[in-house]
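Entry 14. Structure prediction run on the chain below.
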Amino acid sequence: MDFDFPLRKIIHVDMDAFYASVEQHDNPELKGKPVAVGGGSKRGVVSAASYEARKFGVRSAMAGYIARRNCPDLIFVKPRYDRYKEVSQQVRSIFFEYTDLVEPLSLDEAYLDVTENKKGNPSATLIAKEIRQKILAATGLTASAGISINKFIAKVASDYNKPNGQKTVNPEEVIQFLEDLDIRRFYGVGKVTAEKMYKLGVFTGKDLKEKSIEFLDSNFGKSGKYYYYVVRGIHNSEVKPHRIPKSVGAERTFFENLSSEIFMLEKLENIANELERRLKKSKISGKTITLKIKYSDFTLQTRSKTLPYYIADKELILETAKELLYQSSLENSVRLLGISLANLNTEKKEKKEKEESVSVQLKFDF
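Output returned:
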């Protein structure tokens, strides 16, 4: 099939159960056992789970006591972020052997544009296989990969043959692949959105493709246009080596739930200090302040306010955060508070970077 937009050779590499796999690699006694990185206490939260633990329904962001209830033999280990960063740097150094167009999403995953690469290898599929082999040799850890014409499809494909596998979606296979895709596997469609789509009779990519852009706009707002285009294989976002952040934030989870706004003011001040430090380090300012409140029953609430000017000063951040805190009464005792700043001054730079859409018809050896 011919596409009237740029075709690229994109690889999405995703380390398999990264944090937990590092722990199992460094401590052979943990191999083959259900492992959770994080806290197993009532206050603790699972940061990552091994595949052995996932069989019991243990997932990241799950409360530690629920994880232990699901899997009585679960072994909790404390996170070692310095170690994870060290391994992540090893992995990224391998990526840069092939291309400078590397866009990290987190410590354990990244996009690579290998349309033109340092090895002169025309096959993105073979490059992905080589990279995975090198990662295993260098770190003892496995990675999975997705390979296709754009970031969206590569991201979806990388999840297909996990762990320790890869999937290529060639240009001529894209449309059928997307039409057959369960809507829950579309990157950007969360649980709530999937349930809404089900109610609207959308279960697969084919069902989604049958909906007009007007229908999707009216039901899903700004995301409607995104869904309309990606199901047609159109996603022109480039791999950006230096990703421009959409927001900067800081948050704290407390050992004891806080039941009064008065007790939260000191906590908010500490969070504002940390946020100011991060903003100054990155030389960023923003207009929209969001207060994040997680209650003792794990329900989440956010309150936001947009100012007419850019700020990065902790006093102004704290003043607005306090205003948001007192905006309405608390629904329950609070276990977590966070402050983030969005609508950043970096977005002005990003708007200048316009995607080029040229009419090309390429046949790639994937």
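The first helix runs from residue 18 to 26.
Filed with the rest of this week's runs.
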